[in-house]
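Troubleshooting entry. Yesterday's outputs looked truncated, so today I'm pasting the complete records for two proteins to confirm everything comes through intact. If either block looks cut off, that's the bug. Protein one:
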Amino acid sequence: MGSLLSKTKSSTSSSSKPEKMSTPLAFKHLSGIQTSFKPPLIAHENAFLGDVATSTDATAPISAGFYRLEKGTPLVYEYTYHEMKIIVDGEFDISDETGQKVHAVKGDVFYFPKGSKITFTTETFGLGFFVGQRKEGTA
């Protein structure tokens, strides 16, 4: 449908510049990744994080992956980028420096702005899927 709209628009345009045809881009599919991917340990004895996909846009990269926290030491993390996270399993207790506190469960969605300092803890475990505006491996 996009090419139909492009052709319609270009035929009514007063510009005589030829339209560039681009090569189609394939999407990436990671089958069963939520259950098969084991993120590496990043802090303490209980905090795991790993990127599973990263965009190829050098000026505004985005990375996506999984964060898992198990019962134990709380993780205090200061975001140097913007991030969105959806809780996909388990539970987290999430707080910030403003005093806001949330008991997060499966289905909850969060936005962590650049510069926020977030504390994650859990009495059991929690698994979140994130998308962050950063290069691969820079969390």
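Protein two, checking that the full record survives here as well:
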Amino acid sequence: MIQRFETGPRMSEMTVHNGVAYLAGQIPEDTSQDITGQTRQVLEAIDALLAQAGSDKTKILRAEIFLADIGEFAGMNKAWEEWVPQGHTPARATVQARLADAAWKVEIVVTAAV
């Protein structure tokens, strides 16, 4: 069985199958904020989605982080390190990418156990 959450005409924000939650790329709502603020927004959205699936950030298996400007790596990491629980850090990749909206500084995709 596949569960779909916040399903729209183009995509679902999350799907769950065989005890694994797959999140769509999460992006900031308030693009006026700096990289640290945008990252915090994205991490809050991830927390909310994982809660819907009965999971949380301690169960994240993998994170893929896309930055519009790799020069903002330190600012993103500031928010990430405040958020991620020590001892539960997931496998992670961070790359620079042209994001779909030029105002987005960060997009994060996670896969987590449920």
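Both blocks look complete. Sanity check on protein two: The radius of gyration is 14 Å.
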